[in-house]
Amino acid sequence: MLRDKLNEAMKEAMRARDTAGLGTIRLILAKLKEVDIAARTETNREGVPDDRILSMLQGMIKQRHESVALYEKGNRPELADKEKAEITVIERFLPQQLDEAAVEAAIREAIAATGASSIKDMGKVVGQLKAKYAGQIDFSKASAAVKKALG
Questions:
Q1: How many CB atoms lie within 10 A of CB 142?
Q2: Would you say 26 and 18 are in contact if contact means Cβ atoms under 8 Å apart?
Q3: What pTM value is reported for the model?
Q4: Which of 46, 55, 60, 146 has the greatest count of CB atoms below 10 A from its CB?
């Protein structure tokens, strides 16, 4: 389970005295706790499932990429480097990303599976991709590719 992997990585970072890695892992765990609390209901007190954690991690990476672009634009390379280091730590917890050819094949497969024929069916195709390839595809790029394939 991803939650256990994160806790174990925090312990390893403490043992190795890896302050940068430890700080990033603590950020991840704090965000995870926030997501868990937001998802709590009267009947469900358990944490969110792994697919939600993967989605959260991808969101954290996206935020950091945006920050890197802003820091580089603002001529703050030291802050951009810090964000890039955090991205590297966060990516350790994501499954292997699919390359472009595999993403295109997955899109063709999802289009065939859903019977999508027009841009109106884009939601079905992206939903199929999210269900099958959570954490393995950058969905902002995949959405553009789906739009192109259906358009």
A1: 21
A2: no
A3: 0.74
A4: 146
